[in-house]
Amino acid sequence: MATYAAASLSTSDCKIAATGYCSAELGKAAVNAINDNRDELSVANAISEINHILIAGDPVSSVGKVVPKLQHVGQVSKIDHLPGMSNPVKIHDQFISSVSFHFS
């Protein structure tokens, strides 16, 4: 996952930007790996260029609601899915259509 790689490899001298689109949350081991051997400021710097754009109702990006200890790192922005869409799989699959609908 791009966001995990960016967070893991970023340093205070070289921040790596990444954007996740309807991205899955990271597990406890992945978050711990990002935090290993870093103080709080270095972790904040490492994740400062990481962004997630999520669609409300997308099951892939919200598994943490039912599986404990999953989380996104960095900034999270959430937009509504297409009007009238209720199938969770289609909500995930139609990400680009939802973005286009809200921002065009």
Structure description:
By secondary structure, the chain is an alpha/beta fold. The chain has one domain. The protein has five helices and three strands; from the N terminus they run H-E-H-H-E-E-H-H. The chain has helices at residues 2-9, 28-35, 40-47, 88-93, 95-103; strands at residues 18-21, 50-55, 75-79. A three-stranded parallel beta sheet has the order 1-2-3. The longest helix is centred in the C-terminal third of the chain and has 9 residues, at 95-103. It starts with a helix and ends with a helix. The mean pLDDT is 92.
Short summary:
The chain has 104 residues and is of the alpha/beta class. Helix content is 38%, strand content 14%.
List keywords for this structure.
elongated, 104 residues, 5 helices, 14% strand, alpha/beta
Report the mean per-residue pLDDT as an integer. Answer: 92
Helix vs. strand class:
alpha/beta
User: Strand percentage, roughly?
Assistant: 5-15%
DSSP strand tally: 3
- Helical residue percent band: 25-40%
Order of helices and strands: HEHHEEHH
Major β-sheet strand ordering: 1-2-3
What topology emerges from the helices and strands here?
Blueprint: H1 2-9, E1 18-21, H2 28-35, H3 40-47, E2 50-55, E3 75-79, H4 88-93, H5 95-103
Parallel strand pairs: 1-2, 2-3
